[in-house]
Write a structure and sequence with these properties.
single chain, 450 residues, alpha/beta, Four Helix Bundle (Hemerythrin (Met), subunit A), Rossmann fold, 434 Repressor (Amino-terminal Domain), eight-stranded mixed sheet, 20 helices, elongated, binds guanosine-5'-triphosphate, binds magnesium ion
């Protein structure tokens, strides 16, 4: 899935990695390449256009997190915009308030409706439901037989119908009655396929929709047909009103464009993707995970996520004000250390930082993780008064703190010295180059000393 697109996008990001900052020119070039990569992956041109426009606007805007390098910034923006286009969260199947829930499975011939009906039944039963299957294909007895065979394979019930039930609506009603009598909570209705969308098919599906009031009308599309899958989904939606899409055969050499276009073009979410002929080859569609997979930059993405999660903007601003007013206390020092340690190992953080200006060479700075813990322990052993004003920490207080934290007086002395240095260092940083460069992310402390 998406290997080609993923490779191409990663090449764009790699090319940007050497750049010191984002400029109109290098951004323009990167956007051009991203555009081509998306179009080649068969993403709908309208989707590409929208995405590129949004990325451009954002990249040029002031919203950029200056703690990230140019290529990281572009990855971040592209990721956000892709997720937005795919729908920011997973679209779950909707259940009726009163069981049984009815789900119609519709689509063109050979798209994978019957197989997907089986897969969905299996998935539902693994997720706390008890489904029953029914085929309403009254034209091909073999089609109904196919579903019965599948049901037997996955050991789930199928409604076979009676001799009097000759229309799709009658069969589906029979299945719903059976569900109520046997306590099944979901009826999956596998419908007949057509080569093309025709009036008769739409009439039949509309009457099923009217009589059964399904909570889901799932359009099954074959990813191998590329843009045609998107087009027919759109067509079905206009004529029938679908509630979601199941995109099958994503295991093939489909370029994935359909998956990236359906939501934007039809306004309806992609709910599942089929990734093989076996009955467990069905995955709920998670936009954010798929985007991460496409961008394939686990380390950068998780760093970006961590920065976003960990750095509380308000707190950072408050901290900065305190620094400038010289109110940065031991308690603040401790809080900052705690926040930093949440980001993970100091070395891995430095490794992910853009290596420019005064930060150059920091990557190799040796950072003792135990030092962090010790420092926090020492500060935790201080009273509130001491934390607010380090000037009162005299000899006897130092001895008490050392005892309380299981350290030595020397270590307490050292910490107080480091704190004084950090205060000085941060004051310099906050106004100067680092202040601008790091923006929201302030690095207070590179515990260098042994
Ligand atoms: N590789 C792969 N094959 C699939 C997938 N889903 C379905 N197929 C295959 O596609 C073919 C058609 O599947 P069906 O489920 O019979 O399609 P249908 O939409 O019910 O077809 P009609 O009822 O004739 O309209 C079968 O050979 C399936 O095994 C998938 O996710 N991956
Ligand atoms: Mg079928």
């Amino acid at each position: 899935m998406f290997e080609n697109l993923s490779e191409k996008l990663q090449r764009v990001f790699k090319n940007l990695r050497g750049e010191g900052k984002l400029s109109a020119e290098n951004m323009e070039a990167a956007l051009r390449e991203i555009r081509v990569a998306l179009l080649e992956a068969d993403v709908h041109f309208r989707v590409v256009k929208q995405l590129i426009e949004n990325v451009k606007l954002k990249a040029m805007g002031a919203e950029v997190l200056t703690a990230l390098s140019p290529s990281q910034q572009v990855v971040k923006i592209v990721r956000e915009e892709m997720v937005k286009i795919l729908g920011s969260h997973q679209s779950k199947l909707r259940m009726a308030n009163e069981p049984p829930t009815v789900m119609l499975i519709v689509g063109l011939q050979g798209s994978g409706k019957t197989t997907s009906a089986g897969k969905l039944a299996r998935w539902l039963s693994k997720n706390g439901h008890s489904p029953i299957l029914v085929s309403v294909d009254v034209y091909r007895p073999a089609a109904r037989k196919q579903l019965s065979v599948i049901a037997r394979d996955i050991r789930l019930p199928v409604y076979e119908g009676s001799a009097e039930e000759t229309t799709p609506v009658e069969l589906a009603r029979g299945a719903r009655r059976e569900a109520m009598q046997t306590g099944k909570d979901v009826v999956l209705v596998d419908t007949a396929g057509r080569l093309h969308i025709d009036e008769q098919l739409m009439r039949e599906l509309s009457s099923l929709k009217e009589t059964l009031a399904p909570t889901e009308i799932l359009f099954v599309a074959d990813a191998m047909t590329g843009q045609d899958a998107v087009k027919s989904a759109d067509e079905f939606h206009k004529q029938l009103g679908i509630t979601g899409v199941v995109l099958t055969k994503m295991d093939g050499d489909a370029r994935g464009g359909g998956a990236l276009s359906i939501r934007h073009v039809t306004g309806q979410p992609l709910k599942f993707v089929g990734t093989g002929e076996k009955f467990d080859a069905l995955e709920p569609f998670h936009p954010d995970r798929v985007v991460s997979r496409i961008l394939g930059m686990g380390d950068v993405l998780s760093f970006i996520e961590k920065v976003e999660e960990t750095i509380d903007q308000k707190k950072a601003e408050e901290m900065q004000r305190k620094l400038i007013d010289n109110e940065f206390t031991l308690q603040d020092f401790r809080d900052q250390l705690k926040q930093l340690s949440k980001l993970g190992s100091m070395e891995s953080i430095l490794g992910m930082m853009p290596q420019v200006g005064p930060l150059k060479g920091l990557k190799d700075a040796k950072v003792d993780e135990k030092e962090f813990t010790r420092v926090v322990a020492i500060i935790d052993s201080m009273t509130h008064k001491e934390r607010a004003n380090h000037m009162i920490i005299n000899g006897s207080r130092r001895r008490r703190i050392a005892r309380g934290s299981g350290t030595s007086v020397q270590e307490v002395n050292q910490l107080l010295k480091q704190y004084a240095q950090a205060r000085k260092m941060m004051k310099t940083f906050s106004g100067g180059f680092m202040g601008k460069r790091l923006g929201k992310l302030k690095l207070p402390f590179f515990g260098g000393q042994p």
